[in-house]
Amino acid sequence: MSKKDYLAQAGVNTRLTKIGYEPRSFHGFVNPPVVHASTVLFPDAGTMERGDQAYTYGTRGTPTTDALASAMDALEGSAGTVVVPSGLVAVTLPFLACLSAGDHALVVDSVYGPTRRFCDTMLKRLGIEITYYDPMIGADIASLMQPNTRLVHTEAPGSNTFEMQDIPAIAKAAHAGGAVVTLDNTWATPLYFRPLEHGVDISIHAATKYPSGHSDTLIGTVSANEQWWPKLHDAFVTLGVCTSSEDAYTTLRGLRTMGVRLERHASSALSLARELETRAGVARVLHPALESFPGHALWKRDFSGSSGIFSIVLDIPDQARHKPAAHAFLDALQFFGLGYSWGGYQSLAVHVWLADRTVAKAPAEGPVIRLQIGLEDAEDLLADIDRGLAAVRSA
Fold this sequence. Notes:
By secondary structure, this protein is of the alpha/beta class. It is about 35% helix and about 15% strand. This is Cystathionine beta-lyase.
């Protein structure tokens, strides 16, 4: 067998150390060079006219960004990947690539908040109609398909409250109606869920999160199957939404350790989630890998693991007390940072806002606190959460 064949059969951590770059292509150096580029020179006028060489201008990619794209293709099983400046660009690029004025799109109601804002502002101005749907709708999404429905956007699990979706059933119904299916797969990464194997056409990642892993890079990736890759790539080139080679380099470097980091994130998060199910003051724990979670069966059927982010619902039924209780909890924390994003080495906590939802309503029991579980010792994090719960009781 060839090295490529051996690698295809290897474990995920072995693959993560090898994919995306061949050291012999650049003097044997283990990591790819960081290529700074705008202008690329051509050997003659004919080549320049035809664009007949690997690189023609910096916005279309460099060897560094291509190394990351190649690695993502290996993980996703995709026909092609583009690397873009943020996770939000990664989400919105397929919308712009696949939708035109007069089209209709279905977007899951538990969607990432900035995605909703993009839909409600820019897409609306472009004459594109959006319908938000229940994340648990499954095959019944067929009833929402219209003759002009051209895109169905999914996110599994959903942002902040982690609703699971029946992706194969949704994809089947969407394809029957002639729509492209996109999925924000940031939570699971390609290690724990491979969307293209479940009917998705375009897989989206805020690579800022687990692939980068160190809270210092803004970057996104979008991977498409053979049918949709040409349209995605054309939109990428047309919009010029390229990322820097430095960010691609640091993300590829982070990708090498993503497997072992995810194991730690996942194990700590699940152990804490189980402990918190028993804590007074916690009405519910929203984590798909918990047997008590409504979407657990779908998670167990389709996913091979869980990551390090979940939410708790504080037991504060009085709506007027939601914000004071949430603030008391957050202000008591010593090890959790108060900040947005996730996927880095440091644990983070945030009071999430869910008032913009139209179908998947916020939990009624109390405010929702999202916890990003980092690489600290789980015992210390549990003690910190207990400090937060004690502060809520005191308040």
